[in-house]
Amino acid sequence: MALQQVIRRWRYGPPIVVVSGLPRSGTSMAMRMLQAGGMPLVVDGVRAADEDNPVGYFEVERVKDLGRETDRTWLRAARGKAIKVVSSLIEHLPEDNNYAVLFLNRNLREVLASQAKMLARRGETSATSDERLLELFQAHLGRVKALLGTRPRFRLCELEYQKVVAEPRAEAERIRAFLGRPLDVEAMTRAVDPSLHRNRA
User: For a FRET experiment, which of 82, 112, 135, 179 has its CA 20 to 30 Å from that of 36?
Assistant: First the structure.
């Protein structure tokens, strides 16, 4: 562990485990794996499971206000726990915490297909073309990963959605090694349901 990280750990305590990625990229799956493995989660249960996420969203509504709040000290209670933060809000995580980020990557056309189905169920449509959305997603992901790679408050582990579904045990081992916690790998493996991979490129 780099000296700077050691100093930050001494100053700010254990990291907040942040599960992040684009919407519909597998973040709920990763949260479910962590819960099964024995990691305490920060969730409020406000958003109930539905057809789009049959096993639940594992979210905290207050996270959506990170970009507007001036007092984010409430996040300190998440130290040593896992919380889901969509990629567009990563930049608003305050400096006075350490963060171990599990970042989900998924084929962007699968993300688009999944988002389109969710909008259709709500009777909504996107006014932006798929090709333009792909460009916007790629640019956004580039900015977010540059931030995660250069700010000392972040440690990053990237997870490929398709690989987690295909090889859950190996990826659960990677997560356990990255977090350095005695997680139950077998339980994490069982928490991955390949039948929920419904939108394929």
Answer: 112
